[in-house]
Design a protein that fits this description.
The complex is a heterodimer of chains A (about 80) and B (about 450).
Chain A lengths: L1 E4 L9 H5 L4 E4 L3 E4 L8 H10 L5 E4 L14
Antiparallel strand pairs in A: 1-4, 2-3
Chain B lengths: L9 E4 L3 H12 L6 E5 L14 H4 L18 E4 L3 E5 L4 E4 L4 E3 L2 E4 L3 E3 L5 H4 L4 E2 L4 H12 L5 E4 L3 H12 L4 E4 L7 H18 L3 E3 L4 E7 L1 E7 L4 E3 L2 E4 L3 E3 L11 E2 L2 E3 L5 E3 L5 E7 L4 E5 L5 E3 L4 H15 L14 E6 L2 E7 L6 E8 L4 E8 L2 E8 L5 H9 L18 E2 L22
Classes of the chains: A alpha+beta (about 80), B alpha/beta (about 450).
Chain lengths: ~80, ~450
């Protein structure tokens, strides 16, 4: 699983920290630290975090969509 | 593989954030033809902002930040193969390794590289690092865990300050050197930079403002940093944090308006030839693109920030698929973030040319505030230190070119006084981006 957070958009509402406590964490007053590669078995928690974000700052891909095609091979 | 050009279609050169988001936008906008993505690094697109923070701190592995693919790309990837030459007339890209890639439309998203130490021999001394890519971060992290003696950081821009913050968290002795009176002087000015200077002092960083480095000295490994005032600092590890140069070398023979400051585009992200004509089939986006920004009256800028890579690539992709008479101009409110010394820094707008600064929420002394930059009575930029909740309201005013200061009589607002922002005089002709740094947001 791959996660990226748009930290321009993030307002530190911390809803993700409640939804997926092991993977999102607030530091200091409002620095968001997150795990960009959470384990697949935490999919439900991560989906909850995506849904809970009031500013829709979290993007996630549950599989490496294009990895079936190794780099450099033909279309 | 050489000799037989690949099938035509769209090529994207640059496999970082802009290249990835551009590719996704092409597919989302209905492009179903051949798509090739070229990257000089052997890695799938990855996120850079964590490199100078959590990767240096050892909280994330350098390889952990691969970006999510938000849609299926069905692309042909050429990773670890730098583009070395563009033949614009023939529409062929030569890749290192001999592949010739034909295209009928091209998106240039090659980004930037860390500006190296100017003396190439000294730059090769072991223990001299730059910080831009995933390998740089892995190498630097590996060097930091060996518990070197003093770390000397040259350049107190965003990357230099983030690195200083990490090194102090690791307990390493740090000297940070910058020619300006404060850190972050070019991006945020001396008044705000002074707040970070206080953080450096409290964190035990030996900050040397107003100081030039003359040479990096050593015998195989770096041993000393010689200053132009005649002094020298013993150093076991040096981080050169002098900003970035745009990756345009491969365009040298293409007769485009391109140099170390970027490749110039028209307002619709189409690159310009040396005589200023827009090339209808070649676009650029992200750090490498220099374009007339409408919000700042068409000034040519290249924005080295995460949000611009995403938005400009999407915009360019949209225009690449649109008819010639439906090329929409790209407007953008620049924004970046940084975290250092436990503070969340966020900024919007371009501070260049600011003549005044007003603290409109909180206080500099508390290191928790929102400040607005003004130029000739207009609000042109805003920065927050641990006050992100206020930023969108001010971002809206900056985007709407509202007067300076923009909001009066807000709740909890201090008495607003205007102070000099304290920007250093413009640098002598050296191509540079909007902000020093590299892998920050």
């Amino acid at each position: 699983m791959r996660v990226v957070v748009d930290l321009n958009r993030c307002q530190g509402y911390a809803q993700c920290c409640y939804a997926a406590p092991g993977r999102f964490e607030l530091r200091g007053r409002e620095i968001l630290f997150y795990d960009p590669a959470p384990p697949n078995h935490e999919r439900a928690e991560i989906e909850r975090a995506v849904e809970a974000c009031p500013v829709h700052a979290i993007s996630v891909a549950f599989a490496d969509i294009d990895l079936k095609r190794p780099p450099g091979t033909a279309r | 593989m050489s000799g037989t050009p690949e099938p035509l279609g769209i090529a994207i050169v640059g496999a970082s954030l802009a290249g990835l988001r551009g590719a996704e936008a092409l597919r989302l906008n209905g492009y179903d033809g051949p798509l090739s993505i070229v990257g000089d690094e052997p890695y799938r697109p990855y996120d850079r902002p964590p490199l100078s923070k959590h990767v240096l701190a050892g909280e994330l592995a350098a390889g952990a930040t691969q970006l999510p693919n938000l849609v299926s790309l069905d692309a042909r990837w050429h990773l670890g193969q730098a583009a070395i030459k563009l033949d614009r007339e023939a529409r062929i890209i030569a890749l290192a390794g001999g592949t010739a890639l034909s295209f009928d439309r091209l998106l240039i998203a090659t980004g930037a590289q860390a500006r190296p130490w100017p003396d190439p021999e000294a730059a090769r001394l072991s223990g001299v690092h730059t910080l831009r890519g995933r390998d740089d971060a892995a190498d630097l992290r590996a060097a930091l865990v060996k518990n070197p003696g003093r770390v000397v950081i040259v350049g107190a821009g965003l990357i230099g300050c983030e690195a200083a913050s990490c090194c102090r968290d690791l307990g390493l002795p740090v000297t940070l050197i910058d020619p300006n009176p404060t850190p972050l002087a070019r991006s945020l000015g001396g008044a705000i930079g002074g707040v970070i200077a206080g953080c450096l002092r409290d964190a035990g960083v030996d900050f040397r403002p107003g100081t030039q480095v003359r040479a990096l000295e050593g015998d195989g490994a770096v041993r000393r940093v010689a200053l132009s005032n005649g002094a020298a600092i013993d150093a076991d590890l040096v981080i050169v944090a002098l900003g970035a140069v745009r990756a345009t070398g491969w365009l040298a023979a293409a007769a485009l308006m391109a140099d170390a400051g970027g490749v110039t585009c028209d307002g619709a992200c189409r690159v310009l030839t040396a005589d200023g004509t827009a090339v209808p089939e070649i676009y650029a986006a992200g750090d490498v693109a220099r374009w007339p920004i409408p919000l700042y009256d068409g000034r040519l800028v290249s924005i080295e920030h995460w949000g611009n890579a995403v938005e400009q690539a999407r915009h360019a992709a949209r225009n690449m698929l649109a008819a010639p008479d439906d090329q929409r101009p790209y407007d953008h409110l620049p924004a970046f973030w940084s975290s250092q010394f436990g503070i969340n820094i966020k900024a919007v707008g371009l501070t260049e040319g600011a003549d005044s600064l007003a603290v409109v929420q909180g206080s500099l002394a508390a290191r928790r505030f929102l400040a607005v930059y003004g130029q000739a009575g207009r609000s042109i930029a805003a920065v927050s230190f641990d006050e992100a909740r206020w930023l969108p309201a001010y971002a809206e005013r900056v985007a709407a070119r509202r007067p300076f200061p923009p909001i009066r009589d807000a709740n909890d607002q201090p008495a607003i006084t205007s102070l000099p922002p304290g920007f250093p005089p413009p640098r002598a002709a050296r191509h540079h981006g909007v902000a020093m740094g590299g892998a920050h947001g």
